[in-house]
């Protein structure tokens, strides 16, 4: 019975941490089913995301420091989107005034929502990192993973080498978190895999509601290839490494109060 109660508490904390992604998915579904007049769908999605971001900061659900992290992810995501759409990896077929080189600006919020989840979960579950690798290892690793999303179009894809390196680097690393007053721990590598898998599930929901299209979904929707889990896994690792590095840097500045 105790385990069930803890699981319910864990699920509730996760649900609260996923507020921004849930709003995005709900908006995708509603605008797909119910056409909204005056503006194209992509533009309404951008307006909804902007309003949601403003409300989360205004209500205190996100701090200004977290907003800075989320904005960084928005820019990182948009850069990746611009390149991937140009290379034909996926597309945004609908019209929109807020499209830039074929990429609607709301798409950056889908990446930002991952950062939002990480920041929210970090704070709500009082996350603590054990045996975190040195800064000089973490930053180049995150940069290499991100750059591989671009370079594999022109050079060999080294994602599996990078995945192996991640396992080696984080072999002894753990994440400690709190649920209903009880502390638990989990290998960080397992946390990466779980988050990446659930984002893959979210990706299937997003493409079903027309957030974007892969080439094999042009005629009719089909399940996103399971191999995409590896891509999301690596993207989650980049996200986690950036958030963790910034959180740890903030923690080492006791005089710096989170805004």
Describe, in plain words, how this protein is organized in 3D.
The structure is a single chain. The chain has one domain. The model has no long low-confidence stretch (mean pLDDT 80). The strands form two sheets. A three-stranded antiparallel sheet has the order 3-4-5. It has a two-stranded antiparallel ribbon with strand order 1-2. The radius of gyration is 19 Å and the shape is globular. It is built from nine helices and five strands; from the N terminus they run H-H-H-H-E-E-H-E-H-H-E-E-H-H. It has 259 residues and is mainly alpha-helical. Helix 5 (107-124) crosses helix 9.
Q: What's the short story on this structure?
A:
It is built from nine helices and five strands. The protein is mostly helical. The chain has one domain.
Helix content: 55-70%
Order of helices and strands: HHHHEEHEHHEEHH
DSSP strand content: 5-15%
Strand ordering within the main sheet = 3-4-5
- What is the makeup of the main sheet? 3 strands, antiparallel
What's the helix and strand layout?
Elements: H1 2-17, H2 19-33, H3 41-58, H4 64-86, E1 99-100, E2 103-104, H5 107-124, E3 128-130, H6 135-151, H7 159-169, E4 174-179, E5 182-187, H8 188-208, H9 228-251
Antiparallel strand pairs: 1-2, 3-4, 4-5
Q: What key attributes describe this structure?
A:
single chain, mainly alpha, 3-stranded antiparallel beta sheet, 259 residues
């Amino acid at each position: 019975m105790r385990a069930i109660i803890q699981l319910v508490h864990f699920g509730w904390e996760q649900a609260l941490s996923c507020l921004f992604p849930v709003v995005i998915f709900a908006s995708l579904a509603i605008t797909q089913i119910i056409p909204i007049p005056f503006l194209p769908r992509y533009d309404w999605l951008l307006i909804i995301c902007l309003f949601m971001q403003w409300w989360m900061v205004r209500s205190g659900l996100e701090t200004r420091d977290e907003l800075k992290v989320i904005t960084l992810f928005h820019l990182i995501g948009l850069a990746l989107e611009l390149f991937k759409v140009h290379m034909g990896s996926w597309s945004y077929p609908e019209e929109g005034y807020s499209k830039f080189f074929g990429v609607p600006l709301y798409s950056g919020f889908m990446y930002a929502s991952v950062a939002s989840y990480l920041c929210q979960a970090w704070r709500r579950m009082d996350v603590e990192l054990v045996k975190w690798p040195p800064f000089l290892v973490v930053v180049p690793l995150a940069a290499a993973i991100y750059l591989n999303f671009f370079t594999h179009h022109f050079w060999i894809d080294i994602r599996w080498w990078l995945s192996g390196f991640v396992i080696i680097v984080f072999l002894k690393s753990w994440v400690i978190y709190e649920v209903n007053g009880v502390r638990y721990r989990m290998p960080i590598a397992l946390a990466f895999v779980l988050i990446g898998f659930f984002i893959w599930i979210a990706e299937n929901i997003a493409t079903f509601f027309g957030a974007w299209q892969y080439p094999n979904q042009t005629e009719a929707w089909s399940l996103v290839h399971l191999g995409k889990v590896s891509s999301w896994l690596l993207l989650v690792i980049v996200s986690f490494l950036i958030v963790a590095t910034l959180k740890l840097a903030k923690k080492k500045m006791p005089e710096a109060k989170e805004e």
